[in-house]
Amino acid sequence: MSRTLQAPVTVAFDYTRSVGPVLGRFFTGLKERRLVGARLSDGRVVVPPPEFDPVTHEATADFVDLPDTGTVTSWTWVSEPVAGQPFDRPFAFAFVTPDGADAPMLHAVDVSSPEEISTGMRVRARWADQPKGGITDLACWEPEEGLDTPSPGGSGYSTSEPEPVTGIITPVELDYMYAASPEESSFFRGLAEGRILGQRCPACQKVYVPPRPACPVDGVPTAEEVELSDVGTVTTFCIVNVPFLGQKITPPYVSAYVLLDGADIAIQHLILGIPAEEVRMGLRVKAVWKPREEWGTTIENISHFEPTGEPDADYETYKHHL
Known about the structure:
Strand content: 35-45%
Distance between the termini: 38 Å
Oligomer: single chain
Number of helices: 2
Number of domains: 2
């Protein structure tokens, strides 16, 4: 059996931003299957339009509708697409200069091999079937040669005034493989057995949980393994009142730091079994474990902490661990 554990980890959230009047105009144009650029003070036309002129620093005000055809100025081949890219098959990313523009924009070109794309190649926009007011409304560019049907894009596509785009939601995701240290691996394996393990510094005698390879105070290896109680004291806490995507518990609820008996650093976990407004510093709590058949090598084996019914801990016993 390997000494250390590793597991895939995904950190993801939806980033919501207000686009303002300039980019809002660009995204509203995409919703109509139109490319909207801007003419700058030096006469250049760029797309997407910048919010401020890079020369005069004045707000952008001169907007230009551009054709949905253009020219590849440079490109790179993507042989192994990753999640979130425009295609799940090989394709090209390219700088495409739309006709009438003086600077290129970056987007995907749908070709099946590097031999099918070249600098100077003429391309046409392929629009999404159901535009929503985002950059993905321009699904990709494709070679103009051999396309017999006219593009549905361009000014005049919509017969009604579109609802202006004022904000966009961008999913953000980071996937990586987390490799635990030998000490952390022992901690996670202990959780799979219903035990909470820490490490003691031989110099200052502080006990760390989750364990660390070295004491951050003395810089020496933490060689001694210590089994800790699953009972502890709330040192600090936060009442969560704001709902968010993926939330498993309906607010309000409490996220707190719990100093386990015998430890010198607190762990973060949920406090349930008590009204949120009654949670307090010094509250004595005990771990509530999930059914054993649901255990794995994870801190989620502990469902939450709940009050033990004991008197609150004296502030002097945990004031150095806040």
